[in-house]
Design goal:
Elements: H1 8-20, H2 32-71, H3 76-85, H4 92-101, H5 103-113
């Protein structure tokens, strides 16, 4: 009987696990058992991180809008309420971008809703 070489599928699986852990520290990038454990944690945290990133950015936009609107003589909450009342459909990301990079345009928006 001819010789049969085994382990091709298992080897591919191990290589795939190690491919995902590229850039990890210490043995977690090169040792299969440590790499699998690291991926279990990394993938759960990455899901949480994506959700957290949205919260953090929204907080940042709110602070930027608040600072710029106070310079124009309005509080953040009054500005947002006035925008809704006038039916201005700019979201917080765009308002923060305007406040930071285009203060003249932001001032015009505030004047419109006052």
């Amino acid at each position: 009987m001819p010789r049969v070489k085994r382990g091709i599928i298992a080897h591919k699986r191990r290589e795939k696990v190690l491919k995902y852990t590229k850039g990890f520290r210490w043995g977690r990038k090169s040792k299969e058992r440590a790499a699998k454990e690291a991926l279990l944690h990394a993938w759960t945290h990455s899901f949480q991180g994506r959700k957290e990133k949205k919260r953090v950015y929204r907080q940042l936009w709110n602070v930027q809008i608040s600072a710029s609107s106070r310079a124009e003589g309005l509080s953040y909450s009054k500005l947002i309420a006035a925008l809704k009342k006038k039916n201005v459909r700019l979201d917080r990301k765009i308002l923060a971008e305007l406040a930071k990079n285009e203060p003249i345009v932001f001032k015009k928006v505030v004047e419109f809703v006052k």
